Amino acid sequence: MSTLARVDWQRMASFAVANPRQALINTAVAYFIFRQVTKGIKTMSVYGLQKVLTHLWRAVAGGLIRTVRKAPGTGAVLQRSIDKVVKDIEKSMNVDLPGETKYETIPIQPMTDAEILAILKRRQDEPGVDWRNGRASGSVYHGGEELARLTNEAYAMFNLTNPLHPGVFPGLRRIEAEVVRMVLNLYNGTAECCGTTTSGGTESIIMAVRAHVVWGRKTRGIEKPNIVIPITAHAAFNKAAEYFDIGITVVPVDPKTQRVNVKAMKRAIDSDTVLIVGSSATYPHGVCDDLAALSDLALQKKVGFHVDSCLGSFIMPFLKEAGFPEVVCDFRLPGVTSISCDTHKYGFAPKGTSVVMYANKHLRHNQYFTISTWPGGIYASPTIAGSRCGAVIASCWAAMAKMGREGYLQECKNIVGCRVKLQHAIEQIPELFIVGEPTSSVVAFSSRWPVDIYGVQDEMKNRGWELNPMQDPPALHIACTRLTVPVAHEFIRDINESVAAVKANPDGYSQGSKAIYGFAATVPDTTIVDEVAQGFIDTLYAV
């Protein structure tokens, strides 16, 4: 006999009639318990017992710390420590230069061109990381001096243009449409596929999330949509979830390959999921998720599937031709509904250009904003911004036309070849090991005892290198660019010297990078780290 058959429904009905208030309370309590148990089972199936217990500990410990922070004595002491850290950040960044004037109000008298350009030149030359000689990881995606001159000239030609007004600037409308179509072609888009330009990868991702959220509400009646992403997906997905106040489930990756755990992602999808995400490639480790498996999963679950190729951009589509293992990361995968690609990275366009692509116009329409009742007229815009800079779009078109497919293919060979060279050199250092299975321009690496990886970062910084620190697991990465290629041998020399220095004095690196990232990894109250990060951003606007 089934469990339901053994229930005395008649007795329950009689109790409900005789005690309606209590019956309602019992039902509400039972529903609450059912929801919590269901949520707990889902969480356990996605993360596993160890992760759940870790999250629980951090939640409890973080709550205790937040309570302590509210206490008059201890809270004030902790706040002074946080304020000191923020003040130290400001001192290190906002340095007064001898003889340099601070401009906090608009000059009363107009400055001459010579005066203005002299100030700009001095500020351009303020000492920092020597990116021109390849010492910066990523950051500057330089296509060469000749290309820079061309894109600067294109920028000057379209300096006053605005794609919000296609009737005023019809040529710019044509240029923007061609940029989108060329990138769609690169990602094997059909005639039905479409897209828009955006200001960068973050906006492309936010727009893709918005399109799927609106789609879910319109077509499936989902009131509380959610998205499911790998923990290694770009933080812009978390930003989108916060902006739109939607649910987000972050699923783990395989600790060896750093690819998303597809089974965990499958378990995380529910009836309110509108979008799942895969990367081509991930920012932390340069790894490509199993996009084919995610495509099949999206079709099976009838949800959207976004491929984030902002970093992979003009590298991933050329891998096979360049002689590297192919990664299919485009509209050939039937489950893909949207793709983001940054033209301002390995497309070598000026900063401020990216493309978000969709499988069809119906999905793209959900990205748009329109209002037909505004007294100012019928208003419609494709992305977050209203007015946009036409100059960067024209410069993007110029860069793509100048490079051509042959130029991009050669850069893919050089840049990915550089990554392979650095990876092989790192693998020869016993104290280091590669994190994940890199496929693009990025290689991430960590260290074995007694070498601390953040100590290696500090030593590399002493030698002029700006590498990107990672966490969970602790690691460093370098994103190879065109500028890295000619100095690869210098990186190999310096990384060997840095590891040797840390190994010789393993206790000498308790400050610096280790102090910052060690603190972030161990403190259970993330609001403390958030407060320091907010202080860093405040410093950017300190005069």
Rounded to the nearest angstrom, the distance between the terminal CA atoms is 77 Å
The gyration radius over C-alpha positions equals: 27 Å
Please work out how many helical segments DSSP would assign.
17
Order of helices and strands: HHHHHHHEHEHEHEHEEEHEEHEEHEEHHH
Give the low-pLDDT segments: none
List keywords for this structure.
single chain, 4-stranded antiparallel beta sheet, globular, alpha/beta, 7-stranded mixed beta sheet, 543 residues
Give the secondary structure arrangement, pairings included.
Elements: H1 3-6, H2 9-18, H3 20-70, H4 72-93, H5 113-124, H6 145-157, H7 170-186, E1 194-198, H8 201-220, E2 226-230, H9 236-244, E3 247-251, H10 262-268, E4 273-279, H11 291-301, E5 304-308, E6 338-341, E7 354-358, H12 361-365, E8 369-371, E9 379-381, H13 390-427, E10 432-434, E11 442-447, H14 453-462, E12 468-470, E13 475-479, H15 488-504, H16 513-522, H17 526-540
Helix pairs in contact: 2-3, 3-10, 4-17, 6-13, 7-13, 8-9, 13-15, 14-15
Structure, described:
α8 packs across α9. With 543 residues, this protein is α/β, with parallel strands linked by helices. The mean pLDDT is 92. The chain contains 17 helices and 13 strands. The strands form three sheets. Strands 1-7-6-5-4-2-3 form a seven-stranded mixed sheet, with helices on both faces. The chain has a four-stranded antiparallel sheet with strand order 10-11-13-12. Strands 8-9 form a two-stranded antiparallel ribbon. The chain is 50% helix and 11% strand.
